[in-house]
Amino acid sequence: MQVPQFDGVVTPAAEVAVDMLFVPVFQDEGDGPLNAIPGLESASAGWIAQVRASGEFRAKAYEFFIVPVAGSWKATRIALVGAGRRADLTSERLRMIAASCGYTARLRGVTSAAVLIREGFDPVATAAIMADGLSAAEFEIGIYKADRTTEGRYPAKLVVVAPGAGLAEVRAAVARGRVIGEAANQARALANEPANVLSPREFAARVAAMGTAAGLTVDVLEESRLRELKMGLLLGVAQGSVEPARLVVLRYEPKGTAGGPVIGLVGKGVTFDTGGISIKPAEGMDRMKNDMAGGAAVAAAICAIARLGGRHRVLGVIPMVENMPGGKAIRPGDV
Q: Which are the contacts of 289, defined by CB distance < 8 A and separation ≥ 6?
């Protein structure tokens, strides 16, 4: 799979050469985008003013209107994306707007896309948020589908546009947001796996590989070590399953931090939670594979911290187990 290229630019929107240029528009700004972005109306051959006036595009959150570019703009198409009311905008809303742009670009199979940071926003902070959001659309949810053509094709190039800002700062922010977005996708990929694939042993192996790649110190404790440490509760949950328990410890220890504070992260890693003898209802049982999502989040977070050069020591602990009913399953009241 091709690794997409992320970049930040500070040129005017008209100079960005991509297949699709996304322009966020707010419900309560009237002709704001036409006045604030020179040449936008002529680049759309008048369509933007027309659809705004007719109500065809009201700029509700995640609403889109796409039009071919006319004139001298270098983009092939302009896509207005609704951002809702400016007063309601949060960092999370911005991230989701960027994600919706990424998904739209993917479903349409464009090879390159860009998102414009509107005036009035901190270009550096917003660039990181946009890169994070755009990354969300890269996640492959249907990896086990025989026909994956309906999921589109993720763009090979994605650009965050911050006209007039500092180029080095914007590019650094895009790189930071990309690391965060990739980490979120790593956690999502682990949580998306079925329990027959992601056993505790497989979960431990994948997390160990992630940690090693990020430069972490990784310890995987197997059953014998867990017994030595008298981790009876973890072993007790595992004894109803044929799959042995694991405990993964991830350490990030940057230079010069000895004796400083340690941030501790603990993530639940139950790869399937039937409830054991106290079995859960059948409805929703298939979703019990997601009981390891906390562990996936911890693993992805500490790897991202390492890649971003965090300044504090971080310790991640992920107990991994499959909770199943069976003749050896732990009983309520057991010691």
A: 191, 193, 194, 195, 198, 271, 272
Helix (H) or strand (E) holding 320: strand 313-323
Domain count, the chain: 2
Q: Which residue range is the domain that position 33 belongs to? A: 5-192
Give the pLDDT of residue 13: 95
Strand pairing of 157-161 and 112-116?
A: parallel
> The domain spanning residue 299 has which CATH number?
3.40.630.10
Q: Give me the residues of the chain with pLDDT under 50, please.
A: none
In-domain check, residue 209: yes
| Strand residue runs (E) in 121-196 | 157-161
Residue 71 located in a structural domain: yes
Contact call for residues 237 and 192 (beta carbons, < 8 A)? no
Query: Which of 192, 210, 226 is a domain's end point?
Result: 192
Q: Which residue reads 């971003």 in tokens? A: 308
Whether 329 maps to a domain, the answer reads: no
Each residue of 324-335: b (16+ CB within 10 Å) or e? beeeebbeeeee
pLDDT in tens, 40-74: 999 999 998 899 889 999 999 999 999 999 989 99
How buried is 180 (Cβ within 10 angstroms: 0-12 exposed, 13-18 middle, 19+ buried)?
buried
